[in-house]
């Protein structure tokens, strides 16, 4: 068996106990992404208007929201950058140990990274520059869902089903 990072290494060649450890991590990341997506869709909202109002404040039918404060955005940014940075590092490292094409690996990593960066930048831009940056927020969410979801699926598929 080759070591991680050595030429010819593949997740499919790992011992079963190591595969279960990585699978457990991937399940937790998947659950985290699902809850994040549910938060985005239910708490913030899937429309450009709802996204802008969530950060800038305003009326949403019978409810009124207040603008996010600098401190609230700073806390969100701090949490998001540390958490997503670590998750992306681990997922990118794992996907490098798969047999999928280098182009797919690179595309998924860049999509997840760009989605995360766009997500972080967009709420500051929405709040302090223009509500039009809600488009960036929505596109970033899609990029994150596809990028991170793809990294998880490719890793699981290669680890368990591609020997």
Key structural traits:
5 helices; 163 residues; two-stranded antiparallel ribbon; mainly alpha; 2 strands
Characterize the structure shown.
- The protein is mainly alpha-helical.
- Helices cover 73% and strands 4% of the residues.
- The protein has one domain.
- Helix 2 packs across helix 5 (134-161).
- It is elongated, with a radius of gyration of 18 Å.
List the helices and strands and how they pair.
Blueprint: H1 16-44, H2 48-56, E1 58-60, E2 63-65, H3 70-95, H4 102-128, H5 134-161
Antiparallel strand pairs: 1-2
N-end to C-end Cα span:
13 Å
Helix content estimate: over 70%
Radius of gyration: 18 Å
Structural class: mainly alpha
Count of discrete structural domains: 1
Task: State the shape.
Answer: elongated
Helix and strand element order: HHEEHHH
Write out the strand line-up for the largest beta sheet, numbering strands in chain order.
1-2
- Strand element count: 2
Summed over residues and divided by their number, the pLDDT gives a mean of 93
What fraction strand?
under 5%
Instruction: Provide a count of the helices.
Output: 5
Biggest sheet features: 2 strands, antiparallel
- Low-pLDDT residue spans: none
């Amino acid at each position: 068996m080759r070591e991680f990072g050595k030429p010819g290494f593949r997740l499919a060649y790992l011992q079963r106990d190591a595969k279960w450890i990585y699978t457990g991590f991937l399940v937790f990341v998947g659950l985290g992404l699902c809850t994040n997506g549910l938060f985005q869709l239910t708490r913030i909202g899937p429309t450009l208007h709802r996204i802008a109002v969530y950060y800038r404040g305003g009326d949403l039918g019978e409810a009124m929201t207040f603008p996010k404060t600098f401190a609230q955005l700073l806390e969100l940014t701090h949490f998001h950058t540390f958490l997503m940075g670590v998750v992306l590092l681990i997922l990118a490292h794992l996907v490098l140990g798969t047999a999928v094409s280098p182009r797919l690996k690179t595309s998924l990593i860049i999509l997840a990274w760009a989605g995360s960066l766009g997500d972080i930048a967009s709420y500051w831009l929405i709040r302090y520059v223009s509500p039009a940056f809600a488009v960036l927020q929505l596109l970033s969410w899609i990029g994150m869902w596809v990028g991170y979801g793809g990294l998880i699926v490719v890793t699981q598929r290669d680890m368990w089903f591609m020997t």
